[in-house]
Design brief:
The complex is a heterodimer of chains A (517) and B (328). Chain A is mainly α and 517 residues long. Chain A contains 23 helices and two strands. Chain A has two domains: 465 residues, no CATH class; 48 residues, no CATH class. In chain A, strands 1-2 form a two-stranded antiparallel ribbon. Chain B has eleven helices and ten strands. In chain B, β5, α6 and β6 form a beta-alpha-beta unit. Classes of the chains: A mainly alpha (517), B alpha/beta (328). Chains A and B meet through α3, α14, α18 and α20 of A and α1, α3, β6, α7 and α8 of B.
Chain lengths: 517, 328
């Protein structure tokens, strides 16, 4: 409870009308930069950071927190509206969110993302307040074998999103795994699949891959059909979330938060895996699994909450250990050092005032984001009423600009175009894009963790299972693989012994047909 | 990390373009302008050294023209080095580089070496340290080396760079110095100081090798211990000031991660002498001495042919180390 009073002290010193103005300014700036396609929260924060220098520490914190949350939310806005995720952790948001937007439910998608982010951010920040030092000690014990096990679990679960054709799904997945191999092999220092060019010697940026395949691929696909199919105007629909939307969002918000926070709190946990696990969990738990892939609100609410809870969780290793674990956290570390805070083991004891002011600022920034952006959701949604040729040329322009400004290298534009053409080809031949993107994200994690575990154990396979968490996760994986198999073997015997099963089976067939339609 | 570096790069690119747009016409003589290329991301080691040197030269108006700093990222400095080689005869370009770039030229199988460029000057040295977690059984470098000799393949050690980088070369040369076959060392590469710290704190590896800058917080808090530093003398300040050097502990090895400046190949003798004079004038200024102190760098000015000779030695040493561990 001591922590609570300290946080209260931080809030008291932070909430003044003037400070709230700085927070509002930060939120607006962050949102506007974050909505530029291809610019994720990391880049939004990096771009706007200099704005906060020159303010006194408390105001700088508050404005920074606003920029941070604004950038995060701005990123999900473009994922939903334009299908251009700014970082790997908002890829899952784009999948269902953009489908919702196309069905005229953009405002609902934006609202559920905003509220989910708010809940996850608030719960996550409170989690940091209460658990940071204790959690940090446990978290560093979790090593490569456990990450490897979790990644293998994620890959096993990918089979759930392969789409109607397993063959096509696996083709896409392995394409993604191959793309993930491009670049420097950390263990030997040798470049792979770089075709002798130094530009391919570093790993491909997932943002370039995702924006190319999602946004560029789709723009090309639409352009290829525009003359033959009459131009559709995207319906705008209801401006706010209905009762049903609320009912279907609450569970995903909370489950996403619970999934995301621990992944953020362990070093190298990352934000991609929890968003992906949340998506799959919601698909399994949903009463409307057939809507997934065509705009299910649960598929936005869950991953978006997981993403934000994980972002809040990264403050645990950042503040308690001085370890930045994500791109955004790296920028954050630079920002904190710019404000004279040296994150690390001594921070909590040496500069408690600054820490509590920072945490209080995060809560304030998060709240203001919700207050400012919820009313804006219907306005953003109207962006989609721009006639499609203009909308897509705008997307192409911003996607290219985003790809080029990063390195000022024309080669990145070439890469973007290559992935755009790949996206077009995948749409033409009916290959699902989701397994490919997951392959690009999960492949390198899988490889680096496997090799780290084996390097530590000197090549002995026992190094893969020498952590209790890893063994527990493998047990779950084994159950995931075995249970459906066993159930399938037992099922034919069931109708004879248990008559109640028959109607349920009938209902499932209905759902199956719905998917096909 | 990739996204982070790209984000910072973008931020800097925007800032630089705004800044240059604002002041492009203030000075006249474009023939005195210079570019400084930095082969890694803003905030990295080369960036700090290169920008510090440029800001001192600008402050004292050493060159009499504008100075433009550009970060050219990619492939451990190979992208920048490749461009430098392509700019043969360009008298208005310098590039910050160091030990890591020497190794990258091999890892990425470039058709040239750092010694093919025009050597201008070595500027600074940075010591590496041997790090263990607080509860490690090794109390001194001798404890560790004894255990390591007894079982070189059984002890997992790590560093913040992939093979060919300074944190990999250091343990390999240390192994060689104490009579261990470098190829037997169980080296685990981590993607920079952050992941290396968590591997040490979590007891995943027994010993870490790295520059000490990123670990000051953990060292001061007593969560990590430094068994030895790799330079000629002990560190002048900071939390690892009392740590003995390897030579003090009877190990015949001095290893430093150095940084310096190169120019493109095919430079005229006069221009080369002029560029060296710029660096020497910068080196003599009190601002540079202040920058050395602020960053904890050891002054190590070596210019012209002496630097060229030093590069030859370093290049040969990196090549032989990589060969011994089977990476060449």
């Amino acid at each position: 409870m001591d922590n609570l009073s300290l946080l209260w002290g931080g809030l008291e010193s932070a909430v003044t009308p003037e400070n709230l103005l700085w927070a509002a300014l930060g939120v607006l700036l962050g949102t506007f930069v974050g909505v530029l396609p291809g610019i994720g929260p990391a880049m939004a924060v990096a771009l706007l950071l200099p704005v906060t220098y020159g303010l006194e520490p408390t105001q700088a914190f508050i404005m920074f927190a606003g920029i941070y949350y604004g950038g995060m939310y701005g990123g999900s806005t473009t994922s939903i509206l334009l299908n251009t995720p700014g970082e790997s952790s908002s890829v899952m948001t784009a999948i269902e969110g953009n489908k919702m937007a196309k069905a005229g439910r953009a405002a609902q998608a934006l609202a559920t993302a905003a509220i989910g982010s708010f809940i996850a951010g608030t719960v996550g920040t409170l989690g940091v307040v209460f658990f940071a030092p204790a959690l940090a000690d446990v978290a560093v014990r979790i090593g490569a074998p456990s990450y490897l096990a979790i990644t293998i679990m994620a890959l096993v679960l990918v089979t759930a999103v392969l789409g109607t054709s397993r063959l096509r799904g696996f083709i896409a997945l392995f394409l993604g795994l191959t793309i993930g191999l491009v670049g420097l092999d950390l263990n030997t220092g040798q470049p792979r699949l770089s075709f002798g060019t130094t530009q391919l010697a570093d790993r491909l940026d997932i943002v370039v891959v995702a924006v190319g395949i999602f946004a560029l691929g789709e723009a090309l696909w639409v352009a290829a059909h525009l003359r033959r199919t009459p131009m559709q105007i995207t319906p705008v629909g209801q401006p706010f979330m209905g009762k049903d939307d609320w009912r279907r969002s609450v569970g995903p918000w909370l489950r996403g938060t619970a999934l995301g926070f621990p992944f953020g709190a362990v070093p190298a946990g990352g934000a991609e895996t929890p968003t992906f696990l949340s998506y799959l969990a919601e698909k399994k738990l949903s009463k409307h699994p057939e809507e997934f892939g065509r705009g299910a609100i649960e598929g936005v609410a869950g991953p978006e909450a997981a993403n934000n809870a994980s972002a809040a969780g990264t403050f645990v290793p950042l503040l308690a250990l001085g370890l930045p674990v994500t791109a955004t956290a790296t920028i954050m570390l630079a920002a904190l050092q710019g404000y004279g805070i040296q994150p690390g083991p001594q921070l909590m004891t040496e500069q408690p005032d600054l820490v509590w002011t920072l945490l209080a600022s995060l809560l304030i920034g998060n709240t203001l984001l919700l207050v400012l952006n919820l009313p804006l959701a219907p306005l953003w949604a109207r962006l989609l009423r721009v006639p499609r040729p203009y909308l897509y040329s705008g997307i192409l322009f911003f996607a290219s600009l985003g790809a080029y400004t990063v390195n000022l290298d024309a080669f990145d534009l070439f890469l973007l175009l290559v992935f755009g053409l790949l996206g077009l080809a995948m749409r033409r031949f009916g290959l699902p894009v989701l397994p490919l993107v997951l392959g690009v994200i999960l492949g390198p994690i899988l490889e680096s963790k496997a090799r780290e575990a084996l390097a530590i154990s000197g090549g002995s396979a026992s190094g893969l299972v020498d952590e209790p968490l890893a063994v527990a996760v493998y047990t779950v994986v084994a159950l995931l693989l075995l249970v459906p198999f066993v159930v399938a073997r037992l099922r034919p015997a069931r109708p004879r012994t248990d008559g109640g099963a028959t109607p349920e089976t009938g209902k499932r067939t209905d759902d199956g047909e719905l998917v096909e339609r | 990390m990739l996204t982070a570096t790209r984000a910072i790069a973008a931020a800097v690119a925007v800032t630089v373009s705004v800044a240059t747009a604002g002041c492009g016409v203030t000075r006249g003589d474009a023939s005195r302008d210079l570019a400084m290329w930095i082969p890694n991301s803003p905030g990295g080691g080369y960036d700090q050294t290169g920008r510090a040197a440029v800001s001192v030269m600008e402050h004292d108006d050493v060159t009499g023209g504008d100075f433009e700093v550009t970060n050219i990222l990619g492939a451990g400095g190979s992208v920048a080095l490749t461009r430098l080689m392509g700019a043969a005869g360009d008298e208005h370009t310098l590039m910050t580089m160091g030990l890591g770039v020497v190794g990258s030229a091999y890892s990425f199988a470039l058709p040239f070496k750092v010694t093919d460029a025009t050597p201008i000057a070595q500027l600074i040295e940075d010591q590496e340290g041997v790090l263990v977690p607080a509860d490690s059984p090794y109390e001194s470098i001798k404890d560790f080396v004894d255990a390591w000799r007894a079982d070189p393949t059984g002890i997992a050690v790590g560093g913040g760079s992939s093979p060919g980088g300074p944190d990999h070369l250091f343990p390999m040369q240390l192994a060689e110095a104490v009579g261990i076959e470098p190829a037997e060392v169980r080296y685990v590469p981590y993607d920079g100081g952050g992941p290396l710290t968590s591997a040490l704190l979590g007891d995943k590896i027994a010993v870490g090798f790295s520059g000490l800058g990123e670990f000051e917080g953990q060292i001061a808090a007593g969560e990590l211990r430094v068994l030895a530093v790799s330079g000629e003398e002990r560190l002048a300040g900071g939390p690892a000031a009392d740590v003995p050097t390897l030579t003090e502990s009877g190990i015949d090895l001095v290893f430093t991660n150095w940084r310096g400046v190169l120019a493109p190949p095919d430079l005229s003798e006069e221009r080369r002498a002029e560029l060296i004079a710029f660096i020497e004038e910068m080196h003599a200024s009190p601002e540079w001495q202040q920058a050395l102190e602020d960053n904890g760098w050891t002054d190590a000015l070596v210019t012209g042919d002496d630097f060229g000779q030093f590069l030859d030695e370093q290049d040969a040493r990196v090549a032989s180390t990589l060969e011994e561990v089977g990476l060449l």
